Structure formats: C-alpha cells, structure tokens
C-alpha cells in the first residue's frame, strides 16, 4: 500500500521539475554552459525530493544512508539533525539497491544508526552575490562571523560545468603586482591561474597576503578568498586586515557591512572534517562564478591552500573504498583537480584571476599533488628554502619560476630582454658556485668575478619589504611600478651600479632607494 502513493507522486514531481528549474536558471542568469548544469541536475532528483532515509553506518566522515525506493542522485545534498545542528551529507556513491554512501560536511560525532536523513533533491547550494561581501561563510553557505543571516536572494550549486570553449576569452595582459621578482621574471596574466609553490614556512601565505594587499585593494572588482584547510589564526588575521584596510566596509556604528565591501570569505580550516575541506574551494568558486557570469565583473579568486583540497580528497578516498594510487593519493586526483581548475577561467562576460598557494610536501615538486596542478597554471612562483635561508624575502626562485606571458608580444622587447639577461647572470653564478666553494673567488677570471658581483647584487635586489610584514620587519612596505623594475634591473645587469656595495640592494624598493642606502652606508663608515 505504501508504494502506490510514491509511484503516483513521482511523475507529477518529475513534470514539475523543469518548471521549478527554469526560474532558478533564469534567476541565476548563468553563462551558456552553466544553466545546463543547473537544469540537468535537479530534474531526476526532483522525483525523490523530501524522501527520508535512515543512517545505517558511520565511519568517520563517511556516512551510509539507506532509502526505500529510488535513491538520491550522486552529488545530492542530504540533511539530518546532529544535536540541534544541521548536518549536510553529500552523496558520493550508490551501494547496492537501497544504500548511498555520503561524505559529511561537518563532524559526525553524535550521529546514531537509524536516525532519519532527508533528501533535499538538489546539490549543496550556497548564497552568492553582493550580500555575501564582507561576510565569512562556511562550506554550506552558513555565516560563521556571528553577524546574522546572509539574506542573499541568489544561490548557486557548488558543482557546475566549466564554460564552453567558445565562451572563453584568450586576451593576454599583465596583472601588475608591485613585487619586483614577480613582475620582472614571472609576470601574472590578468584572468589567468597563478600557483605559489613552497614547502612549510617559506612564505606562501605572506606572499598571498601581500598580493591581496597590492591587487585587491586597488582592484575595481570584487575578490573571493577561500581558506582551504589552513590555520584559523591566519583567517582571523586576514579578516581584521581587510577591516583595517577598508576592503570590508563598516557602517555608521563601525560594524562590517556588505555595502561598499569588496571581498567575500569562505573558510573550511584545518579543524574541519575532510568533507568540508574537499568542498570549500568549490563553494568559494560558485560565488566567484556568479560575479563573473551575472555581474560581468573581473574577479580575484584567492585560494590558500590547494594542497589541502587534494589532501582532504585523499582522506575520504580510502573511506569510500577506492584503491589508492601513487604516494597514497586518491586515484581520481587529476579528475578532482581538473574539475576545479577548468571552472577558473575568463569568459567573454568577465574574468576570474586566481592566485593559489600550493604546499609542496617535503619540498618535493615531483610529489603528485603539486605536480598535478602544474599543467593548469599560467604562471608558477616557486619559493625556495635555500633563498629564504639567505634572508632574502620573498624567497622566490628566479630560475624555477615560470610564466606563459613572459614573451615580447605581451610584455614588450625591453622587459623580455632584461628578464632573460637577469636569469642568464643568475644561472652563470649558480654554475660557478661549486668552483667558488672549492677554490675560492681568486681562481675566477675577471669576467667571472664581475658576473658573480652583479649576480649577488641582483639576488639581493630581488628582495623587497612587504606591507603585510611591516609589523615584523620594522621596514615600511614598497610597491614598485613595473616600468621602474625593468629600468632598475636593466641598469644593474649592464653594470651601471657596479660601484655600489651589495648590502645597498638588500630590502629596498626601486634603484633610487639602493643609491640612497649606499650613501647612508658610506656616511656611516
């Protein structure tokens, strides 16, 4: 008797699905490829909206739920109550005829076998749009800044298709960062994907914060910051820095407000379960896509840290019963990375410029996690521990960092020639270091001595005081225009400043500051 109403209701609900999906698609006004994702997914799910299952097994972050009748579709969101808190589960697998295996977006402590779970009939949807600016959300779009509900009229599913090939934009232009080593040797493309590679403690987060300081503050559009599996303290510091800098606006009472704010923050930090860390980057991306596709903006999308996204995927992969691949990572590593990275792109409506910090386990760039992300990036900035040990910050490796836009057609012939001359000088110095270590400087030819002298000046001149590190260094931060950077390094390579001591080039902005510092040193001597 119980099955008859289910079968009669299902077609009616299925008929209603396209009608229900149409207004959602219209409201979201997505790019041509995206409405397909919105319309395609709800249709089969609508037939079982509201169906209730029961928990049959709980293993850490993975929860099995048994349903009678039809099962929820893959990637559907299920909801249950966990001691008064809403717990969202995302369907990952179908087991047999009546069980789904799901990944929990929050802690599963307190769940019991047999407790009811409701099918929402759609993917995880998060609030997007102007009302999210100045707010901190979690992976399922709930505010975690204790400032009340978001009240956004717009929501987007966290999974979507990448824009169609014909809708993508290919225009190449430089995104000026004000950081000498980046602008000169590995310039960033506007609307491109940028990776900051580095081991533990070499300065990835400080560099990403300086980029936010230099780009986001002067940037006309909005920024979205996704904190994926990093320290909660850093997220807290970043929020207060944004408040102090005016990137998050304040009302008459001094409280944060969406009006006038230019950044939305989405956090799933280290203490979150792997389900949240594996999906929080997608939640942030859903918001960035809204600003790109609906409002036609140029969006900055910061992710700290992409490695934690991969790490969270590997944590749940074993629990889902998948056989691990190389170094214990999930077998779907490339697929997971591709699904995220291909959505971060520029279209003819707007652009997403993405800056991603990528942790390198044990400083091994051949590890599958960082290696998989290389293929997706337009520019790579590699941080080197040996350079940080010399006290040179940012510890960017000038010979290991690359950029697709470092070509004469994009940056100009003078910039290109200067960058290559700087790299050539540094490479010669690197090849001479073994001889210097064994035999000493005296055994070098006069030409080689000059090369070493210039290379050491260049090495120190690539250092730069950061605005975000002022409180630690006591040196005021410097923003160097790209024209000044090219002019300064061209002069150093050509030997115009051979008479200045090496120490004059350390932790300064432009070449004028190096000359002034040399005069001070001479006076002090």
From TrEMBL:
Cross-referenced Pfam families: ATP-synt_ab, ATP-synt_ab_N, ATP-synt_VA_C
Annotated membrane topology: Peripheral membrane protein
EC number: 7.1.2.2
One GO location term (cellular component): plasma membrane
Binding positions (ATP): 198-205
Chemical reaction(s) catalysed: ATP + H2O + 4 H(+)(in) = ADP + phosphate + 5 H(+)(out)
CDD domains: ATP-synt_F1_beta_C, ATP-synt_F1_beta_N, F1-ATPase_beta_CD
Top-rank EC class of the record's enzyme: translocase
Family according to the record: Belongs to the ATPase alpha/beta chains family.
UniProt protein name: ATP synthase subunit beta
């Amino acid at each position: 008797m119980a099955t008859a109403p289910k079968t009669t209701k299902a077609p009616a609900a299925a008929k209603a699905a396209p009608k229900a999906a149409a207004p959602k698609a219209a409201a979201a006004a997505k790019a041509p490829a995206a409405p397909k994702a919105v319309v395609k997914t709800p249709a089969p799910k609508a037939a079982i909206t509201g169906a209730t299952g029961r928990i049959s097994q709980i293993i850490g972050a993975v929860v099995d739920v048994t349903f009678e009748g039809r099962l929820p579709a893959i990637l559907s969101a299920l909801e249950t109550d966990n001691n008064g808190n809403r717990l969202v589960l995302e369907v990952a697998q179908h087991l047999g005829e009546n069980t789904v295996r799901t990944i929990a977006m929050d802690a599963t402590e307190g769940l019991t076998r047999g407790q009811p779970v409701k099918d929402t009939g759609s993917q995880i949807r998060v609030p997007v749009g102007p009302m999210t600016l100045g707010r901190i959300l979690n992976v399922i779009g709930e505010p975690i800044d204790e400032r009340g509900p978001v009240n956004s009229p717009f929501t987007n599913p966290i999974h979507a298709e990448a824009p169609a090939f014909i809708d993508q934009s290919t225009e190449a232009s430089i995104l000026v960062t004000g950081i000498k080593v980046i602008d000169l040797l590995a310039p960033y493309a506007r609307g491109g994907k940028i990776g900051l590679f580095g081991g533990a403690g070499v300065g990835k987060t400080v560099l990403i914060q300086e980029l936010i300081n230099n780009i986001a503050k002067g940037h006309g559009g909005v920024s979205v910051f996704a904190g994926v599996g990093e320290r909660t303290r850093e997220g807290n510091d970043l929020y207060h820095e944004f408040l102090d800098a005016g990137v998050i606006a304040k009302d008459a009472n001094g409280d944060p407000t969406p009006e006038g704010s230019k950044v939305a923050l989405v956090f799933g930090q280290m203490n979150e379960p792997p389900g949240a860390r594996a999906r929080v980057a997608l939640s942030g991306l859903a918001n960035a896509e809204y600003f790109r596709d609906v409002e036609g903006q140029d969006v900055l999308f910061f992710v700290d840290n992409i490695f934690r996204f991969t790490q969270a995927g590997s944590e749940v992969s074993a629990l889902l019963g998948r056989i691990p691949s190389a170094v214990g990572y999930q077998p779907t590593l490339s697929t997971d990375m591709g699904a995220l990275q291909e959505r971060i792109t520029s279209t003819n409506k707007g652009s997403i410029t993405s800056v991603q910090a990528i942790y390198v386990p044990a400083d091994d760039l051949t590890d599958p996690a960082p290696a998989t992300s290389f293929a997706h990036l337009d520019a790579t900035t590699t941080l080197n521990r040996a350079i940080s040990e010399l006290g040179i910050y940012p510890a960017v490796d000038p010979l290991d960092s690359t950029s697709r836009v470092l070509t004469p057609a994009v940056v100009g012939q003078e910039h290109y020639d200067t960058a290559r001359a700087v790299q050539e000088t540094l490479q010669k110095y690197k090849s001479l270091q073994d001889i210097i270590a064994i035999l000493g400087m005296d055994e070098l030819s006069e030409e080689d001595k000059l090369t070493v002298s210039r290379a050491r000046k260049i090495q120190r001149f690539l250092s730069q005081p950061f605005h975000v590190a002022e409180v630690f260094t006591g040196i005021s931060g410097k923003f160097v225009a790209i024209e000044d950077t090219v002019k300064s390094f061209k002069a150093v390579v050509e030997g115009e400043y051979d008479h200045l001591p090496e120490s004059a080039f350390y932790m300064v902005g432009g070449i004028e500051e190096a000359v002034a510092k040399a005069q001070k040193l001479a006076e002090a001597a």
